[in-house]
Amino acid sequence: MIRKPAASSSSSSSPSSFLLLGGSLMKKVLDAIKELVKDANFDWSSTGFSLRAMDSSHVALVALLLRSEGFEHYRCDRNISMGMNLDNMSKMPEMMISSPSRPTTAEILSPLCLRALGFLLFRVLDCGCQLSIVEDDGFALLYSLFLAQDKISDFEMKLMDVDSEHLGIPEADFHAIVRMPSAEFARIYRDLASIGDNVIISVTKDGVKFSTRGDIGTANIVLRQNTTVDKPEDSTIIEMHEPVSLTFALRYMNSFAKATPLSNQVTISLSSDMPVLVEYKIAEMDRLRFYLAPKIEEDEDETKPET
């Protein structure tokens, strides 16, 4: 439930909460998850920003964490949850225009930027552009674009009452962990999707194998350990404690791969009869995680490639 800000005579000149981050980052994050999650609560606190939501089929879980330390400037005086439509929200940063001049903090906090807009929740800075998101008494979001402090564009988007229960994160001692280039991850699933609907991920001492089967035939892609010293982002690292083989829906894996622009590497963590964890590290401390339940055994028999 969205919590209204307490009335205050000084609220228009002294915002209760604000933060700064790259607008392009927010756009990439929204593009990565909007296909899976339509509506979600954006949770803000003194430690950072988080989002946790399931897809409509309750098969996949999305968990986003952006810590306060990762922002150029961050302040949040109280916890707040804002329900928003992700597809609508993703359209806003597209309207941001880069500027060669980067304003100083003093300019950002000038009276022009902090004019009477109600309760200021956060402000996004991207090469001279700022995207402000405001919660006012009408529970509306007001987006304001400041370019060199001489142009302002306003957009309104209504907040939503998103009814979502607390979603626990599955815990597991993973049998196998694969770290690989995110672009290769996306390419594998894109290629396999042209053959079948499901993918079998198998990790053995020989490497990690991605397999599928469809009406036109079968496909198998095997990756082996490959450490590249000069370009660590191109390395494939496989940690196997026990062999594991699980089947997943390819359409979900292809959706996860939309997060490729966020990170050069992706980590796939697997454990028998447990959801797979697909993780993209954002900078040093932030992360976007996807959890996907494996297909049940009777479905696996139908999709398993012939050996």
UniProtKB/TrEMBL annotation:
- CDD domains listed in its UniProt record: PCNA (cd00577)
This protein's UniProt keywords: DNA replication, DNA-binding, Nucleus
Query: One GO MF term, please?
Result: DNA binding
Q: Which InterPro entries match?
A: DNA_clamp_sf, Pr_cel_nuc_antig, Pr_cel_nuc_antig_C, Pr_cel_nuc_antig_CS, Pr_cel_nuc_antig_N
> Which GO terms of the cellular component aspect does the record hold?
PCNA complex
One GO biological process term = leading strand elongation
Q: Spell out where the chain crosses the membrane.
A: none
- Tell me which residues make up the Proliferating cell nuclear antigen PCNA N-terminal domain: 22-92
Predominant location: nucleus
Q: Does the keyword Kinase apply?
A: no
What PANTHER family does its record include?
PROLIFERATING CELL NUCLEAR ANTIGEN (PTHR11352)
Q: What does this protein do?
A: This protein is an auxiliary protein of DNA polymerase delta and is involved in the control of eukaryotic DNA replication by increasing the polymerase's processivity during elongation of the leading strand.
Q: Which family does it belong to?
A: Belongs to the PCNA family.
**Name of the protein described by the UniProt record:** DNA sliding clamp PCNA
User: What is the species of this protein?
Assistant: Rubroshorea leprosula
